[in-house]
Design goal:
The protein has 243 residues and is α+β, with helices and mostly antiparallel strands. It folds into 2 domains: 3-191, Bira Bifunctional Protein, Domain 2 (BirA Bifunctional Protein, domain 2, 2-Layer Sandwich), CATH 3.30.930; 199-242, SH3 type barrels. 26% of the residues lie in helices and 33% in strands. The chain contains 5 helices and 12 strands. The termini are far apart.
Length: 243
């Protein structure tokens, strides 16, 4: 595993994407940092992290002829890779909040940013950014729903070993994509999906509040919810949010 270690950087994803543009970068190259000045999550949200406490890294994944229409399975594989690493550390009450936040006891312990680089209708490669709260014990007041592995299990963790485990998991699950095990990946993802089978409150992008039951995701990664009139609707990420 080729690892580039940085003390501080604006964004490991941005650094790795620029590196790919300027050099022939090996598959599974990892860029880690102790601190990000402009860490990003989904929908341009900011990822904040205490220096020298957590895992902040990006991984380059080169793919063999994966159709762009199958990119949601990358999300399944990557989310499950982090989920399983935490499971192996004996963290309980874990779920994947659609599309790819990792929750423990309903609090966010990890976030994932997936950036696919397309050539025509194929995914040429993917840059995966992962932020995992490891040994941080105190979070800003503005992040009341954040937690860490240390807070959950009351001990410190070896971040290097965690990084290796997550990358090993990524290799395993990406191999399933190469084998086109799409149904299996989707089933495993839905098994641990946050609030699946439970009626929950949502807000639409138009500002309308409603309750519905999550029944799964479709092949494009849209969230499937069943409303009170038994009508099933599908939503893209920016079209709905949890309340």
């Amino acid at each position: 595993m080729n690892i580039v270690k940085l003390d501080a950087i604006n964004s490991t994803n941005q650094f790795l994407k620029e590196l790919v543009k300027s050099a022939d970068v090996d598959n599974w190259t990892v860029v880690t940092t102790e601190y990000q000045t402009s860490g990003r999550g989904q929908m341009q949200t900011k990822w904040t992290s205490e220096k020298n406490k957590n895992l902040l890294f990006s991984v380059l994944i080169k793919l063999d002829e994966l159709n762009a229409s199958h990119q949601f399975y990358m999300n399944c594989a990557i989310s499950l890779s982090v989920y399983m690493a935490l499971t192996n550390q004996k963290i309980v009450n874990l779920t994947i909040k659609w599309p790819n936040d990792i929750l423990a006891d309903n609090k966010k312990v990890a976030g994932i940013l997936i950036e696919n680089i397309l050539v025509k209708d194929k995914i040429k490669h993917t840059v995966v950014g992962i932020g995992l709260n490891v040994n941080q014990a105190v979070f800003p007041v503005l992040l009341p729903n954040a937690t860490s592995m240390k807070l959950l299990l009351n001990k410190d963790f070896n971040r290097d070993l965690l990084l290796k485990e997550i990358v090993d998991n990524l290799k395993y699950y990406i191999n399933l994509i190469e084998k086109k095990e799409f149904i299996f990946l989707k089933e495993q993802y839905e098994k641990v999906l946050y609030k699946i089978g439970i009626t929950h409150s949502f807000e639409s992008s138009k500002g309308k509040n409603f309750t519905a039951k999550i029944i799964g995701v479709n092949q494009q990664g849209k969230l499937l919810v069943e409303q009170e009139n038994d009508v099933i609707k599908e939503y893209n990420f920016k079209e709905i949010k949890f309340l």
